[in-house]
Design goal:
By secondary structure, the chain is mostly helical. It contains 14 helices and 3 strands. Helix 8 packs antiparallel against helix 14 and helix 11 crosses helix 12.
């Protein structure tokens, strides 16, 4: 297993091969984005972008990482027309240079993509070509041939080969039709029987004896219920009404009671360096179309639900909330600390505030790297990537923000 570092991220060659398999599957449906794994596309496109920018590092003492990256670019670097992008060519050149190989050998040739219909036609064409070649080779020998190649003979051959499937499908269709007809007949019979029983019961209920007038409900005049039963029913009704009143009283008192008093409005003042560190959180939220979370966090800060401690900003808390939503499966218990706090109506206790701050710093990590790494370790690779669907301008702006942070740390 070889570690590969690109931009601010790390990935190993074993996981990279998983992405390559996913991308090769995606390429089958390159004209159908809805059939593709968006998360894999986003990660791979980001990786190729960093390699093209010469922002990649790997161990070149073996060819393990080089082979994985080479295969990745070849599998994912072309568009829907089969043309490799300029970034793919640049990335291909850089990995050759990193491995110490001759850059002139780094050549990517565009590929010819075929639609599913073209692929089917090609298979049919190949089939007939093989058939014709076989018959021609047989005619070149001294063995006399009675049959010549023709479309009719090929059609007959196909029919002989597939007629058992046609018979099977026909029998299955008749069986399903018979089953459905029988089922419908049984249901109709049951309905008719049920209707007849209802009519009979209604008729019986309205029959009267010869000495009873129809308009006098004498059959019910002598019916009486025990006193104990009536008392039990009355007690039950009283209990239900009492419970309703108690609930309404409790609900109205809770609504009237203020949950928390508003505190002084939250203000955020950042130094130049802190402002640079904060920009990737803003651009990431823009990519995910989740900038509304900043206002949501600011509202909670203004109410005093929680505090922004240890250098946390409202943007970083909003981004941590987004990461906890996206990767909740990786750590269901830990992510709930942040999710519950941002949605809470009550002020956090000192212990809850401490857990909230510590999880954002140590659990989510800068730009969500720690939580993402935990998700990858647990094999959760099905999250969709918003980066892949963002505009080119926004992608480049986000990458520039990440590079500015790296320069700030001297990397």
């Amino acid at each position: 297993m070889t570690k590969i570092k690109y931009g601010p991220f790390d990935i190993d060659s074993v996981i990279l091969h998983d992405y390559i398999r996913t991308i090769r599957y995606n390429r089958k449906y390159i004209n159908k984005p809805e059939m593709q794994n968006e998360h894999a596309e986003g990660v791979v496109n980001s990786l190729i972008y960093f390699i093209a920018d010469n922002d990649v590092d790997f161990d070149n003492s073996t060819t393990d990482a080089f082979d994985a990256l080479k295969e990745l670019i070849e599998a994912a670097g072309y568009d829907a027309q089969g043309h490799y992008s300029e970034q793919a060519h640049q990335a291909y050149l850089h990995i050759y240079e990193k491995q110490g190989l001759n850059p002139s050998d780094a050549k990517l040739e565009d590929i010819e993509l075929k639609t599913p219909w073209q692929q089917k036609m090609l298979k049919i064409k190949n089939f007939f070509s093989r058939k014709k070649t076989t018959e021609n080779s047989a005619s070149n020998t001294n063995t006399p041939q009675k049959k010549k190649f023709s479309f009719l003979s090929s059609a007959k051959y196909l029919w002989q080969k597939s007629k058992k499937y046609v018979y099977g499908l026909t029998i299955a269709a008749f069986g399903l039709f018979a089953l459905k007809s029988g089922s419908d007949g049984i249901q109709k019979l049951l309905k008719d029987t049920h209707k007849q029983e209802i009519k009979t019961s209604q008729k019986k209920s309205f029959e009267a004896s010869s000495d009873t007038f129809v308009w006098q409900p004498q059959a019910f005049t002598n019916t009486s219920l025990p006193d104990s039963f009536m008392q039990l029913k009355l007690d039950t009704v009283r209990k239900i009404e009492a419970n309703k009143k108690a609930y309404q009283l409790q609900h109205s008192s809770q609504k009237a009671k203020p949950v928390i008093s508003a505190n002084k409005a939250y203000t955020q003042t950042l130094s130049h360096n802190d402002s640079i560190k904060n920009k990737p959180y803003i651009s990431s939220l823009e990519i995910h179309k989740a900038t509304h979370l900043i206002a949501m966090v600011e509202n909670q800060l203004n109410k005093g639900i929680f505090k922004a401690e240890k250098g946390l900003t409202k943007e970083r808390i909003a981004h941590a909330y987004l990461m906890c939503q996206t990767y909740a499966d990786a750590d269901p218990i830990g992510t709930k600390i942040v999710l519950n706090a941002v949605n809470s109506q009550n002020k956090l206790t000192p212990a809850q505030q401490k857990a909230f701050t510590n999880y954002i710093i140590n659990g989510v990590g800068e730009r969500g790297i720690k939580l993402q790494a935990l998700s990858i370790q647990k094999g959760n690779k099905n999250h969709h990537s918003a980066f892949n669907h963002a505009s080119k301008q926004l992608q480049q702006y986000h990458i520039k923000n990440l590079q500015d942070v790296r320069k700030l740390h001297g990397r």
